[in-house]
Design brief:
Residues 190-324 form the Alcohol dehydrogenase-like C-terminal domain. By secondary structure, this protein is α/β, with parallel strands linked by helices. It has eleven helices and 18 strands. Helix 4 (163-174) runs parallel beside helix 5 and helix 7 (236-245) packs parallel to helix 8 (262-271).
Length: 365
């Protein structure tokens, strides 16, 4: 039987998100109904609400979530009723050209639920990143559920569903930070601080955190930064010079741009050592353009990479990172700077413009 629950939707661009009754259909053969326990408030949901992703309104917002499997389709084998799971938006298909090449982190046909959730009047909802978890329940594909330890609090574990994983993976997977290397991270929101934490977890010995906000610089130190650089009022060349001073005059082995502006990317490009790696994890605007002399690209060598969802494989990475958190090696709890109920989601989305929090989490149970 379909179920009616409360959920947070966006009806139109830049309109306030609102709580309404939504209908969860019976699961298809490979679908799963999840009782959502907590869901992080992410910039991607703000982009959905404000019409910066698409105009396929109405959207059911929310995607950084943890909860418990409540109902499964007839052919589900991946999870069972009662399993405690983190939701992910990379349920790889195993059949596309990326999966066949052995790089499933670039899967072109990730799975979503086979049926749409709706409003009470039957209007179909577009679920944010195929998840839609600012709700008491949501419907997803079984592959979007990753089982994790019951000991992890849902408001903490759910953050691995998107932003925190993006930053951790930018360091651990895309940048492949090695023990003893130097890393610079530009931009210290939730993703940037997670990149700092990932670099520390990988064993980097020099981790330079760069931002214009003193509070964010202080937060980065809690996640493992060995040096902080207040970039307010500094030119690109001045920032590059400071990074070089902190890395023996060479530049960092890995520079992670967690902002995604042409200016920050150019800084990252020149702040790396020869043959160093640049990782772009901050999402650029659709009209952002970059101008770098091609001779500089050639002469500096190394690698220029972008990182989608931290190039993670959820089934491999999420349980491992949860276990590292529970072992005291990854302070995921420090990302949670506040909690709200579903009624507080719209305000929490709006405050993301101010940049004063790492993660607000909507708790539904």
């Amino acid at each position: 039987m379909p179920q009616s629950v409360k959920g947070v939707i966006a009806r139109g661009a830049a309109r306030p998100a609102e709580i309404v009754e939504i209908v969860i259909p019976d699961p298809g053969p490979h679908d799963v109904v999840v009782d959502v326990e907590a869901c992080g408030v992410c910039h991607t949901d703000l982009a959905y609400r404000d019409g910066d992703v698409s105009d396929d309104f109405p959207f059911l917002l929310g995607h950084e979530a943890a909860g418990r499997v409540a109902l499964i389709g007839d052919e589900v084998t991946h999870v069972a009723v009662g399993d405690y799971v983190v939701l992910n938006w990379r349920a790889v298909c195993g059949q596309c050209r990326a999966c066949r090449k052995g790089v499933p982190q670039y899967c072109f046909a990730t799975h979503n639920a086979s049926r749409r959730m709706t409003l009470a009047d039957g209007t179909e909802l577009e679920a944010a990143l195929g998840i839609g978890a600012f709700a008491e329940k949501t419907l997803v594909h079984e592959g979007q559920c990753t089982r994790v330890s019951e000991q992890a609090r849902p408001e903490v574990a759910g953050l691995l569903g998107c932003g925190v994983m993006a930053g951790l993976g930018a360091a651990l997977n895309t940048g492949a930070v090695q023990r003893g290397e130097s890393v610079a991270v530009i931009g210290l929101g939730g993703v940037g601080c997670a990149a700092v934490a990932g670099a520390a977890l990988a064993g980097a010995t020099t981790i330079i955190a760069c931002d214009i906000d003193a509070k964010k610089l202080a937060a980065a130190e809690e996640f493992g930064a060995t040096a902080t650089l207040d970039t307010h009022g500094l030119s690109r060349d001045q920032i590059v010079e400071r990074v070089q001073e902190l890395t023996g005059g060479f530049g960092a082995d890995v520079v992670i741009d967690a902002v995604g502006l042409p200016a920050t990317y150019e800084t990252a490009f020149y702040a790396r050592d020869l043959a160093g790696r640049v990782v772009l994890v901050g999402v650029p605007g659709p009209r952002a353009e970059l101008t770098v002399p091609l001779a500089d690209v050639f002469s500096r060598g190394g690698a220029l990479m972008s990182s989608w969802y931290g190039d993670c494989l959820p089934e491999r990475d999420i349980p491992t990172l949860v276990d590292l958190h529970l072992a005291g090696r990854l302070p995921l709890e420090r990302f949670v700077t506040g909690t709200v109920g579903l009624e507080g989601v719209d305000h929490a989305l709006s405050t993301l413009h101010e940049g004063d929090v790492l993660r607000t989490v909507a708790v539904t149970r």
